[in-house]
Each structure stands twice: as structure tokens, then as C-alpha cells.
Amino acid sequence: MRIFTVSDIHIDFAVNEQWIANLSDSDYLDDCLILAGDISDSEALIARCFDQLMRKFKAVFYVPGNHDIWVRKDSLADSIEKFFKLLELAQQHQVITEPKRLNGTSIVPLFSWYDLSFGTMSDTLLGKWMDFSHCKWPESLETPEAQNRFFLGKNKLQLAHSSERVITFSHFLPRIDVMPDFIPHRFRDIYPVLGSPQLDQQVRALDSDIHIYGHSHVNRSVKIKGVRYINNAFGYPSETRIAAKVLLEIDL
To answer: What digits encode the pLDDT tens for the residues 144-154?
Structure first.
């Protein structure tokens, strides 16, 4: 069984959805896909994506991304209700959202958010970051810090089996130094909403060998303090320089 990954496929764009449809119906039937969030905020599109991928892969793992729990097109009360509804939708399609051991490898989905600790909030970010208007939260989870604690608290950090290796994955970044130095300073105003170091604490508590993440749309593979961090975001149609737009096979 080979393990592939991709994130941020954003199939609201027709060309992105067509890429999913064009994946081979025979090449990956013995393989696993780790889908690290951001499919669409449309439940219908997410269900269609799940259906397509489950016909192409033996197993599909998934965590919701920030776009997935937007509620601008929904009658749902808030983004927490949307989150749980997506987990139910995944279960209906046999998409895996809990830790599972496959051929000596434990694959562990980690839910998370951002806690604003990766940078200083700016008026520009407040005005342009769509989560601030498209996500809705219950009163008990009004701050990003509280939202992050909620999602981290849903993670299962005790593995049922010992294994030869552990692969964890999340949508959000577990540490800011996975971002490459070449990112221009004018684009770094989004750093506060990229992730949380508390997520990396969970990655290391699980003794992860490889951690896969998405969200930044910047393809990356870097080893830091014994853990290999990988981002293989598909990204928006215009993002051809920072996103490879291919499935990435994880070298074990």
C-alpha cells in the first residue's frame, strides 16, 4: 500500500474538481490518500468528492479545513455543528477521520485551528480574512484561542496499537518555521491565522515520524527536530508557482 497526500483542493473551482475526476480509476486501488482539509464549504461538493475518491483509493483519511466549516451557505447554527456534520458525512462515505493502523503505519488525523500566536494581527488581516465573516461560533468559543482548544481537545492521542511508524496530519500548521524563508514580508500578515504550536505538542506526544499539513498553499518538505513536515497543497487555479498540483507519494 502506497500513501499519497494532497490538501486544499478547493473544488468550488471547476478545474480543480475536474482534476479529482481525472485521477486514475485503477492506479490507486491498493493505496491510501491523506486529504488534509479544504475541499469546499458546500456539503454537496464535499460528498461528491468523497464519493469520487473512495472509488479511486482503498482508504481515504480526512480532516476538515477552515473553508469546509464556513456556514455562509448553510442553515446550520454554527461552524461547530458544521464540523460534526462533516464527520458524519465522512463516516457515511467510509472516509476515515480517526486514527487507524495500516500495514504497520499508524495514520492519525489531528483537528486544530489557529491561536494567533504565529504573528501580530493587523487591520489588513482583520479586513480580508474570510473566516472572520464566514465562520460562526457559539458564545463559549468566540476567540480563536478557544476554538483551537476545542478542536485540539477532540484529538485521540493514545494509539490503540504500537506500529513501526506514525504519520500525523492536520489542516493547520503545527509550527511557523515550516514556512520557507523566501515568503515576502508583505505576505506574512497571514501568519497569525496559520496554526498553533500547541498542535506540534500533540504531534510530538504521538512520536510522529511524519506530519502532513495544508492551509498555507506553499508546498514544502522539511525535517525539524526529528519530524518530517510535508505540505502538498493543490491550491487555487492561479497558484502554479508554489503548488505542484499533483498527488504526492509519501516516501516511507
So the answer is: 999 999 999 99
Length in residues, the chain: 252
Nearest to 235 by CA among 44, 43, 65, 63: 65
Give residue-wise pLDDT tens across range 77-88.
899 999 999 999
Q: What is the dihedral of CA 132, 145, 229, 33, to 10 degrees?
A: -60
CA distance 251 to 235: 22
Average pLDDT rounded to a whole number, residues 93-110: 95
For residues 35 and 97, is the Cβ–Cβ distance under 8 A?
Answer: no
Contacts of 56 (CB under 8 A, 6+ apart): 23, 24, 25, 28, 29, 33
Locus of grid cell 516511507: 252
Alpha-carbon gap, residue 172 to 195, rounded angstroms: 5
Alpha-carbon distance of 128 to 100, in angstroms, equals 38
Q: What is the mean pLDDT of the chain?
A: 95
Instruction: Say how far apart CA 244 and CA 140 lie, in whole Å.
Output: 39
* All three cell numbers of 21: 475526476
Q: What is the pTM of this model?
A: 0.95
The three-state secondary structure class of 104 is: coil
* Kind and range of the H or E run holding 197: helix 197-205
